[in-house]
Amino acid sequence: MADRLITLGEVASLLRVSRHTVQAWISPSSPNHRPEFAIMARHAGRRTVFVEAEVSAWLDQRRGALYSDNPAARTAYWRERFIAGRGLLRGLIKAPENVVSERMPGFTGGLLAFDAGPLMTWLTDGEGAAGIMALAGRAEGLVVSVPLALWVLRRAARIPGRYPALLDFVLAQNIFELAPLSEAALRRALELPAAAAEISLQSYCCCIEAGAAMFVTSDRILLKTPGLPVCGY
Hints:
Layout: E1 5-7, H1 8-15, H2 19-26, H3 35-38, E2 42-44, E3 47-51, H4 52-66, H5 71-84, E4 111-114, H6 116-124, H7 129-136, E5 141-145, H8 146-156, H9 163-172, E6 176-179, H10 183-189, H11 198-209, E7 214-216, H12 220-224, E8 230-231
Parallel strand pairs: 4-5, 4-7, 5-6, 7-8
Antiparallel strand pairs: 1-3, 2-3
Helix pairs in contact: 1-2, 8-9, 8-11, 10-11
């Protein structure tokens, strides 16, 4: 029985990513090129097709890493995808200001949470991205709040051609644990300085309630508030 061929669009549906992402994975000129995936692409006339069984086997292997009992395998899975997202918005929007803080990392492990500033610094490959990479290298997992995920995606929708890639990065690739806006997070927020930026305040409270060990931020108010597990980058 001949192997069933599927189109690029069908591959995107199977992997639950956008067509843009699949195209980036198979394009040698893309910064997100994945040779181990691109080797499965075949050309049938002007169309790009794949053998369904090969794609399914590749997906099963990746799922095996994601849900593995081996923490190192799970870490390698999300870290690879996080690194691939560096600079997704490079040159398209202005990189955030890098706030120099005395509250620099004392982070040695656990869940690492991001505020808007460091996340956008990573996506624009701005000043401070290397510090973010160093922090992520010590993390057991990454966390962003649901309010921050919405904040990022609403802004990405204004950038032509970038929304699918950002949607994949924030939601579809299992890079981040999403921290909900819970009642406990709201109560925590009421105890913190009201002068902090709204998105930073919400993100901090959501992520800490979700178990984050450290919150990376550029919010000056949070960085100056004693006793909080926050750091600059």
